[in-house]
Write a structure and sequence with these properties.
Layout: E1 2-5, E2 16-22, E3 25-30, E4 33-38, E5 45-53, E6 66-72, E7 83-93, E8 96-106, E9 115-120, H1 122-125
Antiparallel strand pairs: 1-9, 2-3, 3-4, 4-9, 5-8, 6-7, 7-8
Length: 126
């Protein structure tokens, strides 16, 4: 099993069957496979899921209509962060919308972003 880096927008048109929330990770199980949202920790940064706005059940069982990513650097939760980024991952179906809000901070030299991967099973890779 390995991970292929893909754009978040790849979820458009897919039906989400289940979303599993783990510390620092979200696993999206779709009719087309599995996708993982996480941050690969390096050194001098911190990236975490600040909150989920909306009802995850609104995403289950319907095709994703929109999947978009936006970010900004407005007002960090702590004033002592040298560099910071808020990243918003928005998913919409006909039943509703959910926003996953991530916060990343660093000394300015490391990634503050979240990565999105398609999980490829060994059988699929052959």
């Amino acid at each position: 099993m390995y991970e292929e880096d893909v754009d978040f927008e790849v979820l458009i048109g897919k039906t989400i069957k289940e979303i599993k929330v783990f510390p620092g990770e979200l696993l999206f199980i779709t009719d087309d496979g599995k996708y993982l949202m996480k941050h690969n920790q390096c050194c001098c940064e911190s990236v975490y899921l600040e909150d989920i706005c909306g009802d995850l059940n609104d995403l289950i069982g319907s095709k994703v209509v929109t999947a978009k990513v936006t970010s900004n650097s407005d007002k960090p939760p702590l004033d002592d962060d040298d560099s910071f980024t808020w990243t918003f991952y928005d998913l919409t179906t006909i039943h509703g919308a959910v926003t996953f809000r991530w916060y990343g901070s660093s000394n300015g030299y490391y990634s503050e972003e979240v990565d999105f991967y398609r999980i490829i099973d060994d059988e699929e890779a052959q």
